[in-house]
Amino acid sequence: MNNDAEAIKPCYPLFQDDEYQQMLSRKREGREEGYSADKVHEVFMWTTSEEYKELNFSREALTIDPAKACQPLGAVLCGLGFEGSLPYVHGSQGCVAYFRTYFNRHFKEPIACVSDSMTEDAAVFGGHPNMNQGLQNAYTIYQPKMLAVSTTCMAEVIGDDLNAFITNAKNEGYLPQEVPTPFAHTPSFVGSHVNGWDNMFEGIIRYFTINEMESKEVGSKAKINLVPGFETYLGSYRWLHRAMGEMGVDYSLLCDPTEVLDTPADGEYRMYAGGTSIDEVKDAPNALDTLLLQPWGLTKTKKFIKQTWGQPCSDISVPIGLEGTDQFLMKVSELTGKPIPESLEKERGRLVDIMTDSHAWLHGKRFALWGDQDFVMGVTKLLTEIGAEPTHILCNGANKRWGKAMRKMLDETPFGEKAEVHVGKDLWHMRSLVFTDRPDFMIGNTYGKYIQRDTAYLGKDFEVPLIRLGFPIFDRHHLHRNCIWGYEGAMYIITTLVNEVLARLDEETQKLGETDYNFDLIR
Amino acid sequence: MSSMNRQESEALIEEVLEVYPEQARSDRAKHLTANDPNLDDASKCMTSNRKSVPGVMTQRGCAYAGSRGVVWGPVKDMVHLSHGPVGCGQYSRGGRRHYYSGVTGADSFTTINFTSDFQEKDIVFGGDHKLKKIIDEIEMLFPLNKGTTVQSECPIGLIGDDIGSVAREAGKRIDKAVLPVSCEGFRGVSQSLGHHIANDVIRDHVLTKRYDERPEPGPYDVAIIGDYNIGGDLWSSRILLEEMGLNVLAQWSGDGTLAEMEETPRVQLNLLHCYRSMNYISEFMEEKFGIPYMEYNFFGPTKIDQSIRDIAARFDETIQANAEKVIAKYRPYMDQVVEKFRPRLEGKKVMLYVGGLRPRHVIGAYEDLGMEVVGAGYEFAHNDDYDRTFKELGDGALIYDDASAYELEEFAKRLKPDLIGGGVKEKYVFQKMGIPLRQMHSWDYSGPYHGYDGFAIFARDMDMALNNPCWGALTPPWKRT
Predict the structure, then answer these.
(1) Which of residues A163, A192, A209 is at a domain's end?
(2) Of the residues A355, B162, B178, B465, which has the maximum number of CB atoms within 10 A of its CB?
(3) Is the backbone peptide bond immediately before A472 cis, with ω within 30 degrees of 0?
(4) CA-nearest residue of chain A to B132?
(5) Predicted ipTM?
């Protein structure tokens, strides 16, 4: 127990103290009617077995530890990326509390977002009055330049019509006509947060361009559009700005939340900061082309740009890893006629240098990974580029077509031969895979720490460390400020991977006089 | 002494409300007041537990959060299924840090996110069939579970699924508790109704189960009600009660088990910490089983000492003597903690905005450290919470119910607190403004804060929040005057 004000113990190690341990065992043995320690151990061990894996993969209805979230979360992130824009969620208020909290915990930043707090009466009579009041209040109090409106599952189930509601709210004077209110229906029971971003983005470009296409002409401005998709690494956006700047390309990054998610601590809270301007969105159809940086998650956007803007929406892959970045820059160069400058060529050279320096530690190392569609595809590609072997690749929100494309990509490299692709599976599936086909490391978001802990139960030698890449990352600070796109991003990913490999090697070889044969000063 | 008198507080409220459109202004005005410590009845001066104003950035959650996140979620040997689309379970996973002791995945399930991940077809055709299958799959993969609660998300009630009948049948089939909890997020006005709904399910499905077979209660049998073991709070409380000689038969619901809940009707006394979330079930047990309940407060030595004595007064001289021993045992250490931290915190002003019981319960702990609470408010309180709060605060202190983000910012700008106790949604806003904030929902990933052990940690945390040198770095040297 605590008894020294100079050395106050928090939960750990406080609860390791004898008094607490005795109390816990008294409770366990006297009150809980639990199972014996042997029985619990036996069942736990069974959950790590091949037999359990078969059972686990036989389930059809239950999802356990999903590797995805719901649509409106993505819509909120998208809404944050425009100048003076306030995400507005039509539906239950609890959802917005969750979205804000989820992003608070990942970014360690304030997240502005409102809902119109629909309750039982709205469930019966519809959320129309909520929207009238909500738009009026949100606009009056927070004075946004635009309200990016999306829905929760409640509003979707009762069938509220955003277009009609918003139009009526404006006609009835609750909101000035000229305040932009792009919207998207984002049912939580369809797709994932990735689709929510796509839907909201499509809603935004539709709102600002659909009725103004006569004055637009593809290529009338010698510029390109870049669409990031659900991207949470702020450095990735910043790399894009830098790379395009160095190329001298005229471009619009359509949706850029980097400033609002990274405002300074200087005594002032800025609810709005930076972001793509509405003028840029309006002018986007005049560009030569729009590049979708996470194409697997931007299908609705792609359809709209091709059909309405008439732009080619050229195929690229997410610019993660060497080849992905090469192809991206070459496409930009091809579209704009601007050569790839020496500065980027040098940066590429540095990446290759890093790869040559580190490949020996990564070659043949086996990684299980999960995350969103494009992220997983990009990281898998990068792993094979450096001679590492992806073992189990899991995407909860992907479709079969994605699975086939992954397979094709893996079949093109000897390092992908043994990899298995799991579409629509969750992290409890991943847990089984990690136990039955142990990788050297896992790559994924914070949720993987539970799998790591469970592997450690089998002993330190069996423990599979988690390398934190993706979203969300709640339990490490500031990783979201890094970059995972472009040459710079590949450098960060490789640096992270190789140093985790080396840290693990140190850990394994540091037992004094016992395992320290490979405990070297120089790696 | 409060920093503002009543007139000043009222004037501030008027001024802050000016920005609102008329309807919202008149609505919000009812939720804000200046404290009068002599008032007994909150309904005379303010309104609470009403719908939030649409479009205003409320910090409130929903009924599902109240049931899954607060009341049921911490019961460790049951599976709590987030029934509906994928998001609610994902966002509430592991967020509240209600610690438990057990082997997760084998005999404990609290931090695992079980969801039915509703798809469009489940909305169109109903999800009852899927639910039936899910319960069988839970049984197949987690055989040591003691039961399942079905925590309904918004669509369930809207599409008219009959989870009650699915749960009843499934419960018979697998011979375990399968409990339907209709805590859809749109119900009620905040998480508060979720607490109530969860309590009602305990009342209807858990408490009467073993009542007839109950043995006579032991003279010192008690239960802890309404402690969720955030950062281990319940353990640092329970250890004191046991040291007093009380026999803690059950704890609700942090680190709790179904068996403990079922056994609760044989205790002599229910000890209620979070009144807001579990007064319903405590009252029910009083009426139905004749078990009295009493509220207590384990924040800060003053309140802990008082609570320990109040609890002991319900028992015989042995317990009362033990209580004095416990208080005496920890007194030197508490003095040492206060002696160390009070000089660093004396005279500092605190603003609170939390849920449940904390906006009033922690006031004494701050006062033990020489600090003054100049404003307090709740996300989802009812009038009876404010009745209890008036007495704890100084004259003229600001009181705000269901405060919007905008109001909190404006109040903070004016009151200039040295520290804010709030939630993660407020944390980064105020820290940008240069006001340290400790999360008083999750203890900012520290804790426990309950009991004597907890107070030491609380004092240390408040000191490190307030006196960190980084707060002095907000203005660059070239801009300092």
Answers:
(1) A209
(2) B178
(3) yes
(4) A61
(5) 0.98
